[in-house]
Amino acid sequence: MKHVMLFLMLLGGTSLTSCAQEKTQGTATAEAQTVAMAGDDQPFKVQKTRAEWKAALTPNQFRILREEGTEPPYKNAYWDNHEAGLYQCAGCGNVLFSSETKYESHTGWPSFWEPIDPGAVGTEVDNSLMMSRTEVHCADCGGHLGHVFRDGPKPTGLRYCMNSGAMTFEKSK
After folding, report:
1. Is 59 in a helix, a strand, or coil?
2. Residue 136: pLDDT over 60
3. Residues 6+ apart with CB under 8 A from 86
4. Choosing from 19, 92, 138, 161, which is the catalytic residue?
5. In 10 A of CB 39, how many CB atoms?
6. What Cα–Cα distance (Å) separates residue 35 from each residue in 26, 29, 38, 145?
7. Of 24, 69, 93, 130, which residue is the least packed, with the fewest Cβ within 10 Å?
8. pLDDT (tens digit, 9 = 90+) per residue, 96-133?
9. Annotated catalytic residue 141
10. SS3 148
11. Pairwise CA distance, residues 82 & 99, whole Å
């Protein structure tokens, strides 16, 4: 039993510094604030049924954006992308991040220290699995993007650890 508890503690610590996905609520600066979810008084701008999302997205995009999945580190499209351009929500096209705020976090996922606009993303606090993390979602469609952590570089000190499958990349011309 002692070994099981030690294993769970180690696993929990590892999850806190990775980008493994779980449900979380707050603002683009990771402060606590409720964001309107589809079906609330203030629904997302882009709303589709489950069937419509399935038809519009690839299986991987659907798993990440609509089922809050994650992708393996270092085995995703943008973790090592160094081209200039914009990252958009794969679900609705909302511009989320600029390559100007992307940095090497050494986590295996694309990481940014700031969204392109504070209103481009929303957050939710997740207290599952005996820990608290902050999930990031698209402010326009509610699609799950990844998580934000407070271990990023200056000037924000934030690390928006995103799933490549939740985004598309438009290279600057």
Report:
1. helix
2. yes
3. 95, 97, 98, 99, 116, 169, 170, 172
4. 161
5. 9
6. 7, 13, 10, 15
7. 130
8. 999 999 999 999 999 999 999 999 999 999 776 688 89
9. no
10. strand
11. 8
